[in-house]
Amino acid sequence: MTESNFWPQIAAQAKSEQRPFFTMAPMEAVSNTVFRQVIASAAAPDTFFSEFVYAKSITNSDTKFPVHGRLYVDPAEKIKPVVQLWGDVPEDITSGIAALRDMGFQAVDLNMGCPDQTVIKNHGGSDLIRNPDSAIAVIDAAKKSGLAVSVKTRLGYSKLDEFKEWIPTLLNQHVDLLTVHLRTKMEMSKVPAHMEVIDDLIKMRDEISPDTLLQINGDIPDYTAGVKLAQEHPGLDGIMIGRGVFANPFAFEREPQTHSLDELLGLLKMQLNLFDDFSTHYDMPRFPSLKRFFKIYARPELGATDLRNKMMDAKTTDEVRQILSDYQN
Ligand SMILES: Cc1cc2nc3c(=O)[nH]c(=O)nc-3n(C[C@H](O)[C@H](O)[C@H](O)COP(=O)(O)O)c2cc1C
User: Fold this and answer.
1) In the structure, which protein residues have their CB atom closer than 6 angstroms to any atom of ligand 1?
2) Whose CA is nearest to atom 21 of ligand 1?
3) From CA 271, how far away is CA 149, in angstroms rounded?
4) Residues 60, 161: one domain?
5) What is the CATH number of the domain that holds 223?
6) Is the pLDDT of residue 194 over 70?
7) 181 with 59, same domain?
8) Which of 6, 71, 119, 230 lies 20 to 30 Å (CA to CA) from residue 65?
9) Percentage above 70 pLDDT, the chain
10) What residue owns the CA closest to ligand 1's atom 7?
């Protein structure tokens, strides 16, 4: 374990409310300052993870995977995110985390599950599942940094059974938090998450590293479903939600309510404004990256298919604002 109180505090607060803690998943081009602020204003989780950052790029501006705005935290963000890092070089992890500490971040997460071929070719993400010695060296380097250290991984690379060796390997490193996406790398996101192994994971954690917090991830749509899972599997500490926020930006709401189209479009307008503000600081992201978000707000079941189609043809945030204004008048 590290000396950091970051995760124990989050877990203790949730426990005092008799619930697991909730986090929003690291999602590339999604979990940035803009969308984190939108979700925080709709219904906030206990904490956020950033999209993944190539560890070396934090201290070296000349890499293939530059930081751009990934580490930007708006002063309005009450919750500073956990920064997710990828890479397999311990020295990069050490120097990257030292810089993050100077920037005021409190916690880092090590990506050991990304199935992307480019990441794997560069020995990061799920490639570490196949190279446990590298994984251990990376964790070791991170643990010396003084920040809270967590790992997010999958059950295995090719076969489900691999979790019986891989998860104990990680638990033996005594990280503060272990997040398990309940699929193998090969399964991508194409099969249902393996909820059937949750109790095995809890047992392993209890036996090997009882102080490591355990969080699960995969196919959990919202707060209510997360609470139910934690009740069914005592010992589970945290619930991470990713794509659930695409179906419902109010996914972390504790008492689910029905939200009107106007409310959802209010969130979209907030996102457009934050996006414009963010784009003045950074080259990225560009307008087309916003389009994937339109369907979150302009929902077919609320009769907004035409509105969405119109927005998909827009080329600027101002055009989207005009379309929204025409629609709402
Ligand atoms: C658009 C997108 C980007 C993602 N980027 C990352 C990432 O940067 N780091 C990571 O560990 N996982 C990433 N993931 C995986 C999610 O964190 C999560 O493990 C996965 O979506 C399963 O959880 P869910 O069913 O709640 O979405 C990404 C997923 C999506 C859909």
Assistant:
1) 25-28, 30, 51-52, 84, 111, 113-114, 152, 181, 189, 217-220, 241-244
2) 242
3) 30
4) yes
5) 3.20.20.70
6) yes
7) yes
8) 6
9) 99
10) 27
Ligand 1 mean position to 159 CA, how many Å? 20
Question: Which is the closest atom of ligand 1 to the Cα of 25?
Answer: 17
pLDDT tens figures, 124-143: 999 999 999 999 999 999 99
Is 104's pLDDT higher than 80? yes
Residue 65's domain spans which residues? 6-247
Domain total in the chain: 2
Distance 111 CA to ligand 1 centre (A): 11
Of 14, 38, 42, 114, the active-site residue reads 114
Q: Is the same domain home to 209 and 94?
A: yes
With beta carbons less than 8 A apart as the criterion, state whether 183 and 154 touch.
yes
- Are residues 252 and 279 in contact, defined by beta-carbon separation less than 8 angstroms? no
For residue 307, how far is its CA from the centre of ligand 1 (angstroms)?
Answer: 28
Please indicate whether residue 84 is annotated as part of the active site.
Answer: no
Share of the chain above pLDDT 90, in %: 96
Residue 19 shares a structural domain with residue 164: yes
Q: Are residues 190 and 283 in the same domain?
A: no
Residue 253 lies in a domain: no
Q: Going by C-beta distance under 8 Å and a sequence separation of 6 or more, which residues neighbour residue 279?
A: 285, 286
Ligand 1 centroid to 329 CA: how many Å? 37
State both tokens at 37.
């602020």
* Block residue for tokens 């008048």: 329
Are both 158 and 306 inside the same structural domain? Answer: no
Q: Which atom of ligand 1 is nearest to the CA of 240?
A: 26
37/64 same-domain check: yes
Closest among 216, 217, 210, 126 to 175, alpha carbons compared? 210
Edge-first strand listing for the sheet containing 177-184: 47-48, 21-24, 238-241, 213-217, 177-184, 148-156, 107-112, 83-86, 53-54
Mean pLDDT of the chain: 97
Residue 301 in domain: yes
Whether 290 shows a pLDDT value over 90: the answer reads yes
The structure's pTM equals 0.98
Question: Are 148 and 286 found together in one domain?
Answer: no
For ligand 1, atom 6, which residue shows the shortest CA distance? Answer: 27
Nearest CA to ligand 1 atom 4: 27
Is residue 284 over pLDDT 70?
Answer: no
